[in-house]
Design brief:
There is one protein chain. By secondary structure, this protein is mainly β. The protein has one domain: Beta Barrel (Lipocalin). Helix content is 3%, strand content 71%. It contains one helix and 15 strands. The strands form two sheets. It has a ten-stranded antiparallel beta barrel. The radius of gyration is 21 Å and the shape is elongated.
Length: 258
């Protein structure tokens, strides 16, 4: 799934330019390498899946590239866009038959796998309640994670090679409460949020918080935590599939404001 991020950013930014009082812009570079676990059993695009990322593939943290974020924070509205990417790798001998995008890897096959996750998040924050040093608001946005999955296997008993590739995007709405605190004459900023929804026994939750400290007025350091959880039990939605996905971790970064 592709969507015009630049157009969506400009559309959401329109209310911010009508706030009257001046706001501030933030630019950040951050490092984030969360853990990744979950399983998928069912079909996608007509191809079968039956695999557990950790128990079957032994998927573990690999490498990560620097992510970035850009924000406008005004007295009544805020707009945030961030992007980051992570790589995960695994190498395991299968103890059972698994299926990735229609390709079966039989038991006793050595499978080398990699997963690349590319995350794009866009949020518009409406500050409903404002007090000196504190605000409470509502986030409205979307988070799209693009997954690239590659697996190669060789079975020494049967001398059979197998390969599988998959690329798909998981878009999730970001709706829920957000809050923030300012202290030490605006040198310390703390923010938190929770986004979630549930439908027909399927559920999604995304929570996070970040702390920013500015030793000088225009440049600071940031630390944050972020956790996502998706659950689709058998029979919860249309289609015969069962899936879970968990991503969580902590990150660090540098942030400039002007």
């Amino acid at each position: 799934m592709r969507f015009p991020l630049a157009s969506l950013f400009l559309l959401c930014a329109l209310p911010a330019f009508g706030q009257g009082a001046p706001g501030r812009w933030f630019l950040d570079l951050h490092w984030f390498q969360p853990s990744l676990s979950g399983h998928y059993q069912g079909t996608s695009g007509g191809n079968a899946f039956d695999v557990d990322l950790v128990n079957d593939l032994g998927l573990a943290k690999g490498s990560t590239s620097l992510g970035f974020g850009v924000e406008y924070q005004g007295p009544r509205f805020g707009l945030t866009y961030s992007r980051d990417a992570q790589d995960y790798r695994g190498s395991e001998v299968m103890t059972r038959d698994i299926v990735i995008n229609g390709q079966t890897f039989a038991a006793n096959t050595l499978v080398n796998s990699s997963v690349k996750a590319v995350n794009n998040t866009l949020n518009w924050t409406i500050r409903c309640l404002r007090r000196p040093g504190f605000w409470l608001g509502l986030d409205l946005g979307v988070r799209a994670t693009e997954y690239h999955v590659d697996a190669t296997g060789f079975n020494a008993l049967t001398e059979v090679y197998a390969t599988a590739n998959y690329k798909g995007t998981l878009p999730m709405p970001q709706v829920g409460p957000a809050l923030g605190f300012n202290a030490l004459q605006d040198r310390l900023l703390i923010r938190g949020f929770y986004h979630g929804f549930a439908y027909e026994r399927a559920s999604y939750g995304h929570a996070g918080a970040d702390l920013r400290y500015f030793p000088v007025a225009w440049l600071g350091v940031m630390a944050f935590v972020d956790s996502e959880r998706s659950r689709v039990p058998q029979g919860a939605l249309k289609g015969n599939w069962d899936a879970t996905l968990d991503r969580s971790g902590a990150g660090l970064g540098l942030v400039a404001r002007f």
